[in-house]
Please model this.
Amino acid sequence: MTKLSLGSHPYMLGFEQLERMLERSAKSGNEGYPPFNIEQTSDNSYRITLAVAGFAEEDLSITVEDRQLVIRGRQRDDVDHRMYLHRGIAARQFQRSFVLADGVEVGEAIMENGLLHVDLTRALPETVVQKISIRKG
Model:
């Protein structure tokens, strides 16, 4: 038995891009840091919350690249030469990626109490009915 992909299914025309997005999402290489939540805040809005304790706003960047929300964090190492007896809190960088569906737009980002909130909204597509005329050949 052969494996059917979205792009090769006879009733799913033009979905090759969706299949590529699913593959890209699976390969995004997200590790477990930082932990995050995704919540649905209404029928057409969402909120991604990342635990970014120790990061300042200037240590974080949020971009949308090719329908992919990318959140990066890079902490600066301590410039002053401290002598640690125990260092359990390391300065580490991260990158989290989220694939966005068509029509999903990134709203505002809010930093509060060590949590970064990124709000997303989904615009409802207009229903379009198009009549196609048939001509004689």
